[in-house]
Amino acid sequence: MAASATALTLPLQHGEKRVDDRELVRLSQNGTEAAFEELVRRHQQRVFALVAGILHRPDDVEDVAQQVFLKAYLGIRRFDQRAAFSTWLYKIAVNECWDYLRKKKVRPLVYEADLSEEQVSRLDGIVSTDRPPESASARMETREILERMLGSLPEQDRQLLVLKEIEGFSVQELAEILNLNVNTVKVRLFRARGRIMDAYRRRLDPSGKGHASSAASRKE
Amino acid sequence: MPRDMGLGNAACEQYEALLEDYLNGELSAADAKVAAEHWQSCAGCRAALQHAAASLRLLRAAESSADPGPGFARMVIARIRAAEIDQAARRSSFWQPLVSFGWRFAATATLALGVLVSYNAGWGRRLQPNVATARPTDGIDIFAPEPARAPVNRDEVLMMVADNSHAKF
Fold it and tell me: Which of A37, A83, A92, A105 is the most exposed place for a label (fewest CB within 10 A)?
């Protein structure tokens, strides 16, 4: 970190032209702190989303996300830019999450609790009318309800659904960062959709009709 | 072969990836035509698709993770700096015993060298015997007269008397 932050502000903002990631990586490899800080700013939201999607432990997300960028900084000289910086960074994030869970000897926090009638009817409204809640707080509450349902799914199904549908990662990105074949990701996603809807209908109809069919679906 | 997705929704295995593409709006026109022809005749895939579409509505209603804000990047940089300081301190503490041993070794070697040089230059030479004065006493002087020795028989006595008499004349 030889160059000062002020010295780097100029080239990054020169002519109102956005410097691309490749150039920022090259500058970071030469020890330019401001270039790396810009990379952090650009990718922090996605790294946060990825870590949150895997860990499912809100309290630890920030700490792990910081650790991801620290690892990226320490290893950036070895990054040869054959892949996109974002892909490389997301892989670090995935590994960091698994390391964290292994060190803490915990599974991602999962819980499956019964939903209140109000919560079930709220979900039902979303599914039947296709009218998602507009306010951020209502959407946040919906997420909390969904997280409860997602807790009943196998861990990989939960992660795929959260990262794809809630956090907005593409199938291609998921395949790259999770080291899976694109087709495998698609098939798993499609099956996971069936399982989450299965869990949802079990709550709508707790009489047991759904339980039998869900047991059948889990046999495969 | 249809696969049960739960609640009796069965999808054909070979169409699952295609159905996922369709849901994401990523199906090419040609593939969409093939898929549509299949769905018209396959109730299982049709039901599974409806089921999956409902999951899409449900999941997309949830809020994604919030941006950590502008302070996050600053915190990351601060953590990097702290890690660098820590790393430098650890690196120096790792080499410290070796460095101090090296200095001690160098000091001892210098002292030993100094002693040897000074010994060779003066102190040692003073202890050596004086060659110039010692040579006449230690060596044999070939010009010195032979020491007189006692005759051992009668012939030697006569020879000695004859030499002395001859020396007088």
Answer: A105
- In terms of DSSP H, where are the helices of chain A? 5-13, 21-29, 33-55, 58-75, 85-104, 117-129, 136-150, 155-161, 171-177, 182-204, 209-219
Hey, what amino acid is at A72?
Answer: A
For residues A72 and A134, membership in a common domain is answered with no
The interface pTM score, or ipTM, of the predicted complex is 0.75
- Tell me the CATH number at A164: 1.10.10.10
- Determine if residue B166 is left, alpha or beta; phi over 0 gives left, psi from -120 to 50 gives alpha, anything else beta: alpha
pTM given for the model? 0.68
- Kindly list the residues from chain A whose CB atom is less than 8 angstroms away from the CB atom of residue B60: 132, 165-166
The model's pLDDT over B109-140, given as tens digits with 9 standing for 90+, comes to 999 999 999 888 876 566 555 555 555 555 56
Q: How many angstroms separate the CA atoms of A79 and A217, rounded?
A: 43
Residues in A touching B26 (Cβ below 8 Å): 171
- Put simply, whether A68 touches B (Cβ < 8 Å) is no
Number of domains in chain A: 2
Residues A9 and A42 in one domain: yes
**Position of tokens 């003066």?**
B122
